[in-house]
Amino acid sequence: MMKLHEEKKEEEETCRCGKCEVGEKNRCGKCEELEEKNKKKKNIVDYEYSSGEDDDYVWPNGERRRTREEWARYYKQIEESEGFDVDPFTGDLELGLRGAEDYDSEPIIKCAKAAIERFNSENNTSYEFLKLEKITCIIASGLEYRLTFRAADGETEPKMFQAITFLGIDDSIIVDFCRLKSTASL
Asked: By residue range, what is the domain housing residue 124?
């Protein structure tokens, strides 16, 4: 079970007029307002979600939305990986950063090659693209790709790279950056 509402542990508010005490008959109006407000705070009921409610996420055509657990995992993956390692999720209608599995897509391979060319020119190296490992994508007047791929320079073991590229609707490619993937995230 997952709680959708966490009750905040708030202290009861008390009147600050300095003249009244709780239970006193002649209280100021502020005291009565606060007492009513404090009663309402105590009556908050938590809604608990159960996975049985996931049936509500299926559309009549068989496609479905992500469940709450899947959304939680999705946002955690985005936060932990800067959007590079997001699991593919097919059959949904939501937009946003999506994992993709188009590893043989020529336009995506062109984006990875443009990224490694930029890395080479900025770092005076000669890496060559080998293979796409992970792809995430978001639609934005074209396609922004977050690519994880292998490249080698012929002298050392292949290395893992990460790049953010943009493939415009006119097939233009813009490379935001290309970097070696940190070993902490391998």
From this structure: 106-185
Q: Is residue 54 part of a domain?
A: no
List pLDDT tens digits, range 106-156. 999 999 999 999 999 999 999 999 999 999 888 888 999 999 999 999 888
The two tokens of residue 132 are 């796409």
Assign residue 117 the CATH number of its domain: 3.10.450.10
pTM, rounded to two decimals: 0.62
CA dihedral 159, 124, 104, 90 (to 10 degrees): 70
Residue for token digits 């993956």?
A: 77
Q: Which two tokens stand for residue 3?
A: 């709680």
Name the token pair of 77: 């993956």
In the beta sheet, which residues pair with residue 177?
Answer: 164
Question: Mean pLDDT across the stretch 84-111?
Answer: 78
C-alpha closest to that of 140 among 163, 164, 168: 168
